[in-house]
Amino acid sequence: MSEIISNLSIIHKRINKACAAAGRDPGEVKLLLATKTVPAEKIIQVLRQGESVIGENKVQELKEKYEALRAIPHQAHFIGHLQTNKIKEVLKYATCIQSVDRPDLAEKLQKRLESEEKTIEVFMQVNTSYEESKFGIAPENAVDFAVQLSGLDRLKLCGLMTIGIFSSEPEKVRKCFRLLKNIRTSLLEKGLNVPELSMGMSHDLETAIEEGSTMVRIGTAIFGERIYPDSYYWNEEKQVF
Ligand SMILES: *Cc1c(COP(=O)(O)O)cnc(C)c1O
């Protein structure tokens, strides 16, 4: 068995164990393969094991792998920072955009989709850690923004997404996930049902599942360490290298 396949089975065991501990059905927690920097051959290996959702951070990378992955049924979610000048391109390749984080992006997506007579599933990204270096709508603006999104008929708001704080203190990480869950509850009270909670990565999936995650996004623990630091993907506009 290849290392990747054995890593995949370890991840499923971790998910199952976390679900058991939280009294949840493992069928409620989907696995998204975070495939940035991972070559198509390796992604194919994992999709052949029955996985069905990948997530890419760069439109260019999504495009480059599109042809190679096309023959294998799967969904491609966009999970990186989306610049408005990439909207046209991302809509060709992504089945869902998890990183809708600001009103102007939402408006421009709506306009483009109207002209293409299409709709797309979206998640609202929330900056639950309040870190300058992370994208996402500020938690205090999240409810208003979700209401705005629900009024855009080309965007099907089906979830909330966040990146937990990087901290060795699990309680700080938990706070981020709990905040996302609480935002979902506030939305439900307003009559907005946004079922998915995309939260939890290689190092914090257990905490995320305890807090109600319905989709964990896993890269490193399946595919190994990446050569670029995550800041390369997360704050390209906010940090100078
Ligand atoms: C890279 C990435 C992940 C996966 O992170 P790992 O720590 O490698 O599991 C999840 N979500 C987003 C938005 C990412 O960019």
In short:
The chain is α/β, with parallel strands linked by helices and 241 residues long.
Number of helices: 10
* Order of strands, widest sheet: 7-6-5-4-3-2-1-8
CA-atom Rg in angstroms: 17 Å
Helix and strand element order: HEHEHEHEHEHEHEHEHH
The proportion of residues in beta strands is 15-25%
Low-pLDDT parts are none
In helices, the fraction of residues equals 40-55%
Describe the main β-sheet briefly. 8 strands, parallel
Instruction: Give the integer mean of the pLDDT values.
Output: 95
Number of strands: 8
| Bound compounds | pyridoxal-5'-phosphate
Shape: globular
> Separation of termini?
39 Å
| Category by helix and strand content | alpha/beta
Structure description:
With 241 residues, the chain is of the alpha/beta class. It has helices at 3-22, 40-47, 59-69, 87-93, 103-116, 142-150, 170-189, 205-210, 220-223, 231-234; strands at residues 30-34, 53-56, 75-78, 96-100, 120-125, 155-161, 196-198, 215-218. An eight-stranded parallel beta sheet has the order 7-6-5-4-3-2-1-8. The mean pLDDT is 95. Pyridoxal-5'-phosphate (PLP) is lined by residues 34, 36, 57, 79, 163, 201-203, 217-221, 230, 233.
Features:
241 residues, alpha/beta, 8-stranded parallel β-sheet, 16% strand, globular, binds pyridoxal-5'-phosphate
Secondary-structure blueprint:
Blueprint: H1 3-22, E1 30-34, H2 40-47, E2 53-56, H3 59-69, E3 75-78, H4 87-93, E4 96-100, H5 103-116, E5 120-125, H6 142-150, E6 155-161, H7 170-189, E7 196-198, H8 205-210, E8 215-218, H9 220-223, H10 231-234
Helix pairs in contact: 3-4
The chain binds pyridoxal-5'-phosphate.
Pyridoxal-5'-phosphate binds at residues 34, 36, 57, 79, 163, 201-203, 217-221, 230, 233.
